[in-house]
TrEMBL record:
GO terms for biological process: protein insertion into ER membrane. Gene3D superfamilies: Tetratricopeptide repeat domain. Belongs to the GET4 family. It comes from the Eukaryota. GO terms for cellular component: cytosol. This is Uncharacterized protein. The lineage of its organism: Eukaryota, Sar, Alveolata, Ciliophora, Intramacronucleata. It comes from Halteria grandinella. InterPro entries: GET4, TPR-like_helical_dom_sf.
């Protein structure tokens, strides 16, 4: 088969090259030859990528991910190395979609994945999506830079505190490194002060006290400020579930609880 691959490559018959690579992949997979299987996929991806086959290269990575890496939870350095290569050589839209699914499945286990996306999106002027991915990779410097650009997109100074508060709250909800949220405000936006920003700055201390009653009391005092952002309470609910043993600020309806119990979400 190696000779056949070389012939197809010389003929620039890349589609058939990819199909034969898939056949060899599944052959090794069925025989549980993991090392050989990985080598076939890596060789195929590198060859197709260096020959400008943007769709075929992501096709092979998709096959490896769905048929092996995800099935047996073999999300390792080898897989991430392939992701890095395909990021540079694959179709941008498809790579972005694929990376989003990997981030969701792995629960953002490797921050290099959102970091690659974020820097590309930022360079292309896609500041809102870049900002989300910078939050995922905890890059405070670029969280601040992308936030500045987002603020410029038709929003007045009166809403700057909301953007900052939401970014700080997102950091708190995603990571236990509360200092990142405080650093974002103090180092990059020292001039932005408001009740909603003050509220978010208090959250780490309340969380460390493990006082859910106090959290609800403080939220009640800042209710009008919190209502300025329609998604703020949803993020706060995630914070409550994460740091207060699953307790909720937004109560589920009876139907939602019933569905969750059927789907395995009930306790």
């Amino acid at each position: 088969m190696a000779e056949r691959l070389q012939t197809l490559l010389e003929q620039k018959n890349f589609y058939e090259y990819e199909q034969l690579t898939k056949t060899m992949f599944f052959k090794h997979k069925m025989r549980r030859r993991t090392d050989e299987m990985k080598k076939v996929i890596e060789d195929g991806i590198v060859t197709l990528g260096t020959n400008g086959q943007k769709d075929l290269v992501i096709d092979l990575l998709e096959i490896y991910y769905t048929e092996h890496a995800k099935k047996v939870n073999d999300i390792d350095d080898f897989f991430y190395k392939l992701c890095g290569f395909v990021f540079e050589h694959g179709d941008e839209a498809r790579v972005e979609n694929f990376f989003d699914r990997v981030i969701e499945y792995t629960r953002n286990a490797n921050h290099d994945i959102p970091r690659m996306l974020a820097h590309r999106q930022f360079s292309q002027g896609k500041f809102s999506t870049a900002h989300i991915n910078f939050l995922l990779c905890r890059d405070v410097d670029f969280i601040a830079k992308s936030l500045v650009e987002v603020m410029k997109q038709g929003y007045g100074e009166a809403e700057q505190d909301l953007f900052l508060a939401r970014a700080m709250l997102e950091l708190i909800s995603r990571t236990e490194q509360f200092s990142l949220a405080i650093k974002l405000r103090k180092d990059y936006f020292p001039q932005v002060r408001s009740p909603i920003v003050n509220f978010v700055e208090m959250l780490p201390e309340i969380i460390q006290m493990k006082d859910f009653g106090l959290l609800k009391e403080i939220i009640g005092k800042y209710e009008n400020e919190i209502k300025r952002d329609p998604v703020f309470m949803t993020i706060l609910d995630k914070v409550a579930q994460k740091y207060f043993d699953g307790q909720r600020l937004i109560q589920e309806s009876g139907l939602a609880k019933l569905l969750n119990s059927f789907l395995g979400g009930g306790k």
